Structures are given as C-alpha cells and as structure tokens.
Amino acid sequence: MGFLVIHTDPHHTDFSHEQTELDAIGARLRPLNVTTEAEVAAACRDADALLVTYAKIGKTALAGMPKLKIIVRTGVGYDSLDVPAATARKVMVANVPDYCISDLAEHTMALLLAWWRRIVDLERQVRTEGWGRPVKPVYRLEGKTLGIFGMGRMGQALAVRARGFGLNLLGHDPHIPPAAFTACGVASVDLETLLRSSDIVTIHSLLNAETRGVICEPTLRMMKPSALIVNTARGGIIQTDHLVRAIREGWIAGAALDVTDPEPLPMDHALRSLPRVLLTPHAAWYSEEAEPELRRRAARTIVQALRGERPATLLNPEVSG
What are the angstrom distances between the C-alpha of 212 and each of 116, 127, 235, 265, 267? Predict the structure, then answer.
C-alpha cells in the first residue's frame, strides 16, 4: 500500500505541491480536519507521517499512532508539538524554519511604518473627508531606536532592512552568538535595557516556556510612554490583557500585531476598539512565493525521513532517521 501521510488540519484544498514531492516514494496524502489530540489519535492511527498546521500533538495523540515516524510542522513555530514526548517515542519532529523570512521582515516593517506614519488614520481621513490634513503628532523615524527581541533568522533579516531607515538597533537574544549581532550592526543588550531604551520593540522570538507571557505588566511598564510594540512572532509572548491596560493607561503608545492571544480575536475583544492598535490576521508569513515553498519543503522533509535519511530541520536530531 505504501506510506500514508496525513495532513491533520490544512487550510488549503489543492495538494498538488505536497503530492508531487510524495510521489517520489509512492506515498499517499490524506487531508483531514482534526485539531485536538483525541481527534488526531482517533483519525490518524495508520499514519506513517504527519503534516501539521495548528493541531496539538502530545502524548495522547502520539499514543494513538504506533506507525508514526515523523511530524512536520508546516511553519516556523512548533509550540503546538510536544517534542520531548515525540522524542521518547522515537518520532522525528521537524519544521520549515526559513521559508518566509523575507515576507515576515517585510510585513514587520510595513506594520511599523504604517503605525508610525499613521497611514490608516490618513487613508480613512481622505476617504471620509475628501482630503483632510496631517494627522498629528507624527515623529520622524530616522534616529529612533528599534529593539529587536529575538535575533535568529527573522530578527537578523529585520535588522538588515531597518538599518536602511536610519534606525539605531538594539537586540536581545541569549541564544545567539555575539558575532551575529555584530554582523547585523545590532548592539546586544539585556531585555530590560532593550525595553527601556527602544522607541519601537519588535518581537521575533519563538514561543516556549522561557518566552510565554514575558511581555506583561512589569516589562510593559519598562517601556517608554511613546513606544510602539510590534509582534509578528507568536501571540502568547504578550499577555494580551496587560497590553490592553498598558495602551489604555498610557504605559506605551500602541501596538501593531499580526499575532494575538487568543487567535483569532473575538469580535468584541478590547484590542479591536483601541485607536492606536493596528491588526492583521496572522498573515505575515504569506506571499505567493512563500506558500508553495512551504508546502513543498514540508513534504520533502517527510520524504527524506521515510527514506531513512536525516532531515536537516529536525528539532530532535537525537532520534535516528
């Protein structure tokens, strides 16, 4: 019968990119719509490999899939996957960590610039008033300080782009060597210094036990009252209720967010009604180039694993291929 690859929760209906890669080993692709561990365990028992968008994969799901050899997260973050539990069962786990670096960096700069130059307010004014006048205040971006929280691939790509706008660059990431900061022209600082010194803070960290909720009342109170926070990483890095209060009470000036917690935001959520908040729907990863690349590379990783090879993007390389 060949290998069975199950996509637990795809957000598309055309699987030609994936199937083209899987044809190399005669594997079949079965798309489903399961997101909870119990649903995955019940529906994916015969899977040799999983493609996962947002489904939760932990001990319960893994126990229901005795043939499983690899899980591939179709994206960068992997906080929905219990990597230690998979490792204990000798199941490889991989992601696609660098398919949308340009897209995320561009979207981050777009959010930053749109908020800073009050583009949404100006566009609305032209539509409703016919022409209007400058919306005040707007301050020059050149010479301001940008703090980059998370200096991996995404943070470094943003630094390259931000330099062109004349920004002073600070960065914080205890897991990145000093040479990477130097190469990007970024000064390495501790998190408190970054928050207190930056006019704009942009988040590019993974969501894990170390970073979950780290942007909260104490850290938000460290920021300047005039500061903007931008998040295109994971919503759970910011404690949303604390952010709402920070903006309402003037601890910071506003936020530009592509990701939130919860996600999607309820229609009556307070963030939707705050005037200095710019929201996009977890779309920073997307471009017409990025989406097919993601799908092909995720499927190609499965092909490598099922051939007995060791994929380059393994998150648990101690598991043998």
Answer: 27, 40, 9, 18, 24
The pLDDT tens digits of the residues spanning 203-214 come to: 999 999 999 999
Which residue among the candidates 245, 282, 293, 296 is catalytic per the annotation?
Answer: 282
User: Which DSSP helix (H) or strand (E) runs through 188?
Assistant: strand 187-188
296 in catalytic set: no
Range of the domain at 50: 4-99+288-306
CA distance 29 to 70: 14
Is residue 197 predicted with pLDDT exceeding 60?
A: yes
**Whether residue 70 sits in one domain with residue 109:** no
Residue 45 has pLDDT above 90, yes or no: yes
Q: Does residue 160 fall inside a structural domain?
A: yes
Catalytic status, residue 263: yes
Residue 204 annotated as catalytic: no
- Both structure tokens of 78: 């992997």
Compute the half-sphere exposure of residue 303: CA atoms within 13 Å on the CB side of its CA: 17
Amino acid present at 185: G
Residue 35: Cβ-neighbour burial (10 angstroms; 0-12, 13-18, 19+): middle
Q: Per the residue annotation, which of 28, 163, 245, 263 is the catalytic one?
A: 263
- Name the active-site residue from 73, 234, 297, 300: 234
